[in-house]
Write a structure and sequence with these properties.
It contains seven helices and 64 strands. By secondary structure, it is mainly beta. It is elongated.
Length: about 900
């Protein structure tokens, strides 16, 4: 809005409560109504309507209030002139009463003065008074400030942020003083004043008041004697603007007086209007004799007065209303001098409106008639026209719909509204003839009571007669009704039909075994009166029998076992019939219906689609492996008469979902599939770990974790163990299984621990002297001990062959000179061989007289030999000849000695011990 009268911009006058009480009746009635219902302003038409007077009488009352500075004139954005009450900035009971009217129900009553838009000249000062009343029940701290979105007014205000402390039922006032600088740009500034009490009334605040401030150009109040002056003839004001008819011309004379002592040139401008609004004509001058040229300004000598012709000719499309362009006179001698004046012009309204009714669909049969109302605004005012269709016939047999019902037509524009007319009484349609005329009219009403050239538009809809074939259709309808009655009689008298299965299916296409649910069936059978029995059979998808057949006997009523599932009316409807199908698999069910007329043969048969029962997801084997990939045979020992053959293979495993496990089996096989470790079975009852597994297994968040579980392997070889998990829902076969990699049990390495002759470790070559003339045979004692696999074989070669792992044997010596190699050999189960050997060499002694002091070798009898006495192994007392022994002493008796090696420090090939093959 824009304030058009500025007489109160620096005045302290205004309307107080005392003034309202002392006003005449009509003025008081108008002011009270404007304060209560029109705080932002009311138009002349609204005021005249409220006072129930004509506009001229109402205008006289408003002029009297204007002269007393009790009201202000406001020009809105739509160029409408409104009148608003101008309140005086006073406190007290009177002002509080006004506040209660303006803000009922709020704990804070606020009065802004001025309450709306305001106009001020650049370089002047103005004030805004805010009166706040605390109507609440508690004291409040109230902040009143100018919003940051109004930075221009914050710069002009002395104190943009202020605060009030009000007790209950108290009033306070805040004053904002603004100094508008002379350099302020003439324009309209929006500002927001905020009243906020966040600590005491957070739900009712902040309260925001939005208004506009129009800054007008600065007008010098001091006119120097030498400054030029000008005036506009005829004079105009906001209350008496100069009228201009639409498309007309308003001619004004601008008289300019050059009061200086210098020749000056003056130029006139109007910056508030477009160039097509006005024309400025300066007096023509003579440049030379006989040549006339237009002047670009008004040239005046000192003390002379001249005239500039100003013509206003607004374009034809300009909206009617009051306009106030600003005129400025420029002086060539004093360019900085600002000479301003305002011209008030009023473009008179033109109410020319063209209305026409066009027929879109004028002849109707079964659909609706369609008409268009076209309005063309040839005037310069905004028109709001209400279009109301009214039937012109006595019988109201049609409905009327107008879209939209109100048309708003801007100057120079068109608007269209569509009228739909629908006949509703079908029996009123004529049967023969040219049709029926349905007359109506469109009533046009201007909401602002502007004159209308044609307030009524007549129209006609032709309702065509019925076509000839509708009579034939009527005849056919009668014949069809007769046929329908005959058909109903036939239905009532015909024999009952046989049962017909309409629908047979499962409640769900798939089931979860985890829910412990069984398959449920639904069916619907027509003509159930003659139904005798129903038979349900179920098979697996491969054709094997899944459930036992079920037979339901009806005999005209629902069996007891189906009464909670079935309803018997015109059809037999059964839902969620349970079956015995619970195991996982694919099922197909068949339903057979038997009639009471022929109970031996099914009258109807139907099958379901494949129905699945999805098994419970089995437990998963997360880990299964041996503790180590290779084991070694334990040395054979005797323990309570039993031999431990091999070390035990130990397994680790981890299985999920312990609560789903019923049984775990472990079996070992060779890579060829031969069982070499007997089956081990562990039974899990109620998810508890068996006692045999307690030392090795534990439950970790429903996972069975077992470590170092021994197996029952008994032989050396290769093993592949298989872990089989049996679920609780299916104990016939394992739900999941897993095998280990090949686990090897290797035999112990063979080792000759002891190999002695006559209790002593032999040298590679053992020499024995013999007496060739003696018939007695000599012998030596062999003792040995071999360690290794239990399946190892031990041999003494060349004789006697296989021998035990340890023992002693008497080995006879050939009585003739020569040599013989004796080999002790051990062979492991894998074929690996180790051996120890010694060469027995016999040589003849020279013939000499027996010395009774010389020890003799044992002699083997020729008959029934007995084990000879083998001399003990050499000791310190019976060592062979050494430097410390003297011949002839008992310790120096001659003993068999080994020959000296051919090369000192090295052994001959015969002296080397046998090695591994």
């Amino acid at each position: 809005m824009t304030l058009t009268n500025s007489r109160n911009k620096n005045s302290k006058l205004g309307l107080s409560m005392a003034d309202i009480l002392t006003l005449p009746t009509q003025q008081r009635k108008l002011v009270q109504w404007m304060l209560k219902n029109k705080p932002d302003g009311a138009t002349l038409a609204e005021a005249a309507y409220h006072l129930d007077l004509n506009q001229q009488a109402t205008l006289n009352i408003l002029d009297e209030l204007l002269d007393q500075d009790f009201i202000q004139t406001v020009l809105t954005h739509d160029d409408d002139l409104k009148y608003r009450v101008y309140l005086a900035p006073k406190q007290g009971i009177q002002q509080e009463t006004i506040q209660q009217v303006l803000a009922p129900g709020s704990p804070l009553a606020i009065i802004f003065n001025p309450s709306g838009d305001y106009a001020v000249q650049a370089g002047s000062r103005f004030e805004i008074h805010i009166t706040v009343t605390n109507k609440g029940a508690e004291s409040a701290l109230i902040n009143v400030f100018i919003d940051d979105l109004s930075p221009q007014l914050i710069q002009w205000c002395d104190a943009p942020h202020q605060r009030l402390a009000l007790s209950p039922n108290s009033i306070g006032e805040v004053l904002f003083e603004f100094n508008v600088p002379i350099t302020a740009i003439p324009s309209t500034y929006n500002y927001v004043i905020v009243v906020d009490a966040p600590e005491h009334y957070p739900e009712d605040t902040p309260i925001r008041h939005t208004a506009k401030l129009q800054v007008l150009p600065a007008i010098e109040t001091v006119v120097r004697v030498s400054d030029p002056t000008f005036n506009v003839i005829p004079a105009s004001s906001s209350r008496s603007p100069a009228p201009i008819p639409p498309g007309g011309i308003l001619q004004l004379s601008v008289n300019v007086h050059n009061r200086s002592d210098r020749v000056d040139r003056f130029r006139l401008s109007c910056s508030d209007c477009g160039d097509n609004w006005y024309t400025i004509r300066y007096p023509e001058g003579l440049e030379t004799a006989g040549l006339i040229i237009p002047n670009m300004g008004l040239n005046l000598n000192p003390g002379e007065t001249g005239q500039i012709l100003l013509q206003f000719h607004p374009p034809l499309g300009v909206t009617a209303g009051i306009y106030y362009p600003t005129l400025r006179l420029y002086s060539a001698n004093n360019p900085d001098l600002v000479l301003l004046d305002v011209v008030y012009v009023q473009v008179l309204p033109s109410y020319l409106l063209n209305a026409e009714l066009l027929t879109v669909v004028g002849r109707v049969r079964r659909k609706a008639g369609v008409f268009e109302i076209r309005l063309t605004n040839a005037g310069n005012t905004v028109r709001e026209i209400v279009c109301t269709p009214v039937p012109a016939d006595e019988d109201k047999i049609c409905t009327y719909v107008t879209t939209p019902p109100v048309l708003r037509v801007l100057p120079g524009e068109k608007a269209i509204s569509q009228v739909t007319i629908t006949p509703v009484r079908w029996w009123s349609r004529p049967i023969f003839g040219a049709g029926r005329l349905l007359n109506f009219r469109i009533e046009l009403v201007d909401q602002q009571q502007f004159p209308l050239p044609n307030p009524s538009l007549p129209g006609t809809v032709i309702w065509e007669a019925r076509p000839w074939w509708q009579l034939l259709l009527f005849i056919l309808t009668v014949l069809g009704s007769i046929a329908a009655i005959a058909f109903l009689l036939w239905l009532l008298l015909k024999p009952p039909a046989s049962p017909k299965i309409v629908r047979f299916q499962s409640s769900d296409a798939s089931y979860q075994q985890a829910n412990n649910g069984n398959i449920r069936l639904n069916w619907q059978i027509r003509y159930p009166k003659t139904l005798q029995t129903l038979t349900i059979t179920g098979v697996f998808a491969d054709g094997s029998v899944a459930v036992q057949p079920v037979v339901y006997n009806f005999n005209g009523k629902i069996p007891t076992e189906l009464q909670s599932y079935c309803q018997l009316q015109n059809t037999l409807t059964c839902a969620n019939i349970p079956t015995d199908a619970r195991k996982p698999g694919d099922y197909i069910f068949e339903l057979q219906a038997f009639s009471s007329k022929n109970p031996e043969e099914a009258v109807d048969t139907i099958k379901t689609n494949t129905i699945k029962i999805i098994p419970i997801p089995p437990a998963k084997i997360l880990e299964f492996a041996a503790v180590k990939p290779t084991y070694q045979e334990v040395p054979a020992t005797l323990k309570t008469g039993k031999q431990i053959s091999a070390d035990t293979i130990r397994l680790n495993w981890k299985v999920s979902d312990l609560d789903k496990i019923n049984q775990i089996q472990i079996i070992g096989r060779s890579p060829e599939g031969v069982v070499n470790s007997e089956l081990q079975t562990y039974q899990f009852n109620q998810g508890e770990i068996p006692d045999t597994l307690q030392p090795f297994c534990r439950n970790e968040q429903n996972q069975l974790t077992c470590r170092s579980v021994p197996t029952k392997n008994s032989t050396i070889g290769n093993y592949i163990f298989e872990l089989q998990v049996f679920a609780k829902t299916d104990t016939d076969k394992p739900s999941i299984s897993q095998k280990t990699d090949v686990i090897k049990v290797q035999p112990l390495p063979s080792q000759i621990v002891e190999f002695k002759i006559n209790g002593s470790e032999p040298l590679p070559k053992y020499q024995i002297p013999i007496d060739t003339q003696s018939q007695a045979k000599q012998a030596i004692n062999f003792s040995w001990k071999v360690e290794g696999s239990s399946e190892m074989t031990t041999e003494l070669l060349p004789a006697p062959g296989n021998i035990p792992r340890s023992g002693t044997i008497v080995y006879p010596i050939n009585n003739q000179p020569g040599s013989e190699t004796i080999i002790l050999q051990a062979t492991s189960p894998t074929g690996e061989k180790i051996s120890r050997s010694v060469t027995i060499e016999t040589f003849a002694l020279p013939i000499q007289t027996p010395n009774p002091n010389q020890p003799q070798l044992p002699q083997l009898p020729t008959t029934q030999p007995t084990p000879p006495v083998i001399p003990p192994p050499p000791t310190a007392q019976n060592q062979p000849n050494t430097p410390g022994n003297t011949p002839g002493s008992p310790s120096s008796a001659p003993l068999p000695t080994s020959p000296t090696p051919s090369q000192p420090g090295k052994l001959s090939p015969l002296e080397l011990p046998p090695g591994f093959d």
